[in-house]
Amino acid sequence: MAAENPPHQKACRKEGCRGSVPLALGGEGFCLEHFLEAASSRTNEALNRCRQGRNIDSKSLALLLTDALAIVQNLEEGAAEPNADERERMLDLLLVVANVHEYVAHDAKQRGPLGQGSGGISPH
Description:
Elements: H1 32-51, E1 55-57, H2 58-77, H3 84-111, E2 120-122
Parallel strand pairs: 1-2
Helix pairs in contact: 1-2, 1-3, 2-3
């Protein structure tokens, strides 16, 4: 469970959660635990789409990259006080985002300049 928030930090916007929102996740409004749950769900869904040869829309891909940036910033912010379990979850999530990126890049390379074939990024 997330730690209770100090008076100077925002509380997680997830109903019933009293965890604090790390600075790196201020725009998200979630504590680290709930951010990682949501980001993991989005990332796993995208990875499954790739494995099935289905497109990932550009907005979803951009969101995954935004998630990755937030994770890197949070890792940097918490470097002085590492929590091994949270750090492992964040690193695992970054690895899955990298895998999704590799699937998309590989598919785009195979489809060629005209974007023929299945999978990859759709502009929607």
